[in-house]
Amino acid sequence: MQKNSHLMVQPEELGLLTDLYQLTMGACYTGEGVADRRASFELFTRRLPKHYGYLIAAGLEQAIAYLESLSFSPEQLDMLRQTGLFHNAPDSFWLRLEATRFTGDIWAVPEGTAVFANEPLLRVEAPLWQAQLVETYLLNTINYQTLIATRAARLRDVAGPEAQLLEFGTRRAFSPQGALWAARAALAGGLNATSNVLAALKLGHNPSGTMAHALVMALAALEGDEDEAFQAFHRYFPGAPLLIDTYDAVAAAERLSQAQAQGHPIPAVRLDSGDLVELSKIVRSHLPDTQIFASGDLDEYAIAHLRQQHAPIDGYGLGTKLVTGAPVNGVYKLVDIDGIPVMKEAAGKMSYPGKKQIFRQFHQGVIVQDYLGLASEDNAGHPSREPLLQQVMNQGQRSSRIESLETIAQRTAHSVACLPAPLRNIHSAAAAPMTISEALENLTQQTRRTALQAA
Amino acid sequence: MQKNSHLMVQPEELGLLTDLYQLTMGACYTGEGVADRRASFELFTRRLPKHYGYLIAAGLEQAIAYLESLSFSPEQLDMLRQTGLFHNAPDSFWLRLEATRFTGDIWAVPEGTAVFANEPLLRVEAPLWQAQLVETYLLNTINYQTLIATRAARLRDVAGPEAQLLEFGTRRAFSPQGALWAARAALAGGLNATSNVLAALKLGHNPSGTMAHALVMALAALEGDEDEAFQAFHRYFPGAPLLIDTYDAVAAAERLSQAQAQGHPIPAVRLDSGDLVELSKIVRSHLPDTQIFASGDLDEYAIAHLRQQHAPIDGYGLGTKLVTGAPVNGVYKLVDIDGIPVMKEAAGKMSYPGKKQIFRQFHQGVIVQDYLGLASEDNAGHPSREPLLQQVMNQGQRSSRIESLETIAQRTAHSVACLPAPLRNIHSAAAAPMTISEALENLTQQTRRTALQAA
């Protein structure tokens, strides 16, 4: 195990990237002789984030990569033993961990699919101890990437198909890897590019960016004035967007307009402060053919306001409010053990029992109704209801193709286009047209009675 | 470069973990012949998060580790070249990147120090292109860890020194590495332990945890009832906290009280839902000597409420609201280039020019006044004013010792104890007693005049 100051995570360390209780419960399951019973867990959210009408599923590819490579090294197991926390655990637990590989099945909605509250994004069917162990990592990847892909989809929906939407969040992201995952999910959700060089190169994209105030300040101090800074940057990056608000954006736009008249093209500028509605209109009046980018704590609400005020802005840099903030609170709940449907009834935290499927009904390309039903339900009578969860791993082997980010982004765009308009309202989204099937309703009643007897 | 589905970050890839414009600006600086001019950048926040009276600085260790190892491999530079974005960059830029190592000086407040708005947490003094390149990573590590350490300090301050505060956030953290950094900063800020096994082992701690609803549901279904699940878990983890709210927490507490009377000790239980004030009082009435842990979307406000209502709770699991949410919006601004102080004047985003120092004055162990002054100011006339920024790297070499998390946590506790009480009010913290020194005020006026001439 790397114990250096970087505190990076190595792919071969992912087995330990879990909550302690997943391992202690595994020891208990082993001791009780139930570790290999077939368990089904489903990952879903009880409530959508405030004002959200849908989620865009993302993070599945990292979930599958994790499950494919799950294992523990002898050194890792030694460290675990040395904690002393497991001294009453059965020896067979350690044998089990030494031989760890994931052998279960995974069903999931494809990345880029719109889902609603209580609809499973993913189901794990595996030996109980394995399905338990992987909870933490699956939630980590799917919660965060789903949040970012959803925000990206909302941004794209509000900004329109022509706007350039650029992910600038790395400096505010919650860790370097958080920045990479944010960049991936942002592209999956419909943004055009990321400024994060490492993320872009790993994702097979070109990074994107403009210039910073520091360049203007440094070159103005060393070479004389702001215009010299602009000219210097264009010497090496002709046509690159110029950041014009270091001192006085209006004065800078006026001078750039004169420069353009003298033959220096100014294809794009960026505004990062001030009243963006007013400033963008003034800049446009001086530079009618120049693309205007805006940045500075923008989100879908700010963009909606700017558009409503007819601010002539062609592109947006999205940072802090894209990559930080309130999370998607996905949970991962046991729904079936050895063929016995189970449910939790804790106050306000009820879950539906049994292995489930989402059946989605469309009319003229728009979702009219989702039925949350049992995976075993026969849909033959309703050929127009599309089952959303697909098998993506079979006995621990990937059974689906790796999808490109472009494919996922196209699915996202299609998913949003299929939503009823009231669900796309960013200010107060309507409740989703989701109902429980009769079979699931019956199973829920029945399981509740059984659970009450168990308590 | 690893281009696998995990999207992990490797330590040797950190050079590229930056925004594109840091590299394009470096190319421009190189072409203009100013790349090696001595630049000073300072990292600070303009405003504290809402209702926060202070920040606890954290993340410096990862910043230093990054700077010590900064470099680019030939393969990485090839990939960068192949983007085509740099085809007008001077050849000398590539030679510069090939030989990259950080050669600057770093001044910083030690981790665990309380700071206020506009006070620099860190200053980089380095060749301009290097100081520019490292902005993104420095902000990434210090913004996030400072947020988490500050929240942890607030939680500890509200919960009191005896409470067990456990970091349970991994499933909601923004990426696996985000979870590790959160665990580190939470321990640095005063929490007792983390449930993240990998984080704990890398940090030299033991992980901590209880049990999950799934164990109760699985064993109740397979073995008969909730009590069998409790007994099973205690067979392998005697005395481990039992999660009692899967079905009916009050009924479970009554039964555990009877079990205890029959000789089965119940040292601890956990409540994860419902009215925690009422439930904890009922549980305490049944199990007077049992430790009660609470969890479920808790933060410092919830803990303050629970304590005010005299809820008999001994420990708290902190997850979602500790590791996600609104960020610390640290910025990194050029303050001096080649001995010329500079400042930004964009609307609402002004920065103070010049290399600065925080001079902190105490009276009877409590901060009475911070003076934000120039690093060059002679403090000889004020021996009671303690300068907070210390040199931690000298010409690219670490010049400070690696501190243990325990040392940092002790400093955090001391920092909070030294704050005036109104700054510790979590509901509406008072403004910090921070003022600008006369020398800095004069320099600001002077620089503003110069900047206006430059524009």
| Tally of structural domains of chain A | 2
Overall spatial form of chain A: globular
Second-tier CATH architecture of the largest domain in chain A: Alpha-Beta Barrel
Radius of gyration of chain A: 26 Å
Classify the secondary structure makeup of chain A into a structural class: alpha/beta
Stretches with pLDDT under 50, minimum 5 residues of chain A: none
Query: Spatial order of the strands in the main sheet of chain A?
Result: 13-12-1-5-3-17-18
The CATH topology of the largest domain in chain A is given as nicotinate phosphoribosyltransferase
Fraction of residues in H or I helices of chain A:
25-40%
How many helices of chain A? 16
Number of strands of chain A: 19
Largest interface, counted by CB within 8 Å of the partner chain's CB: A-B, 145 and 145 residues
* CATH homologous superfamily designation of the largest domain in chain A: nicotinate phosphoribosyltransferase
- The averaged pLDDT of chain A comes out at 95
Please report the distance between the alpha carbons of the first and last residues of chain A.
43 Å
Oligomeric state of the chains present here: homodimer
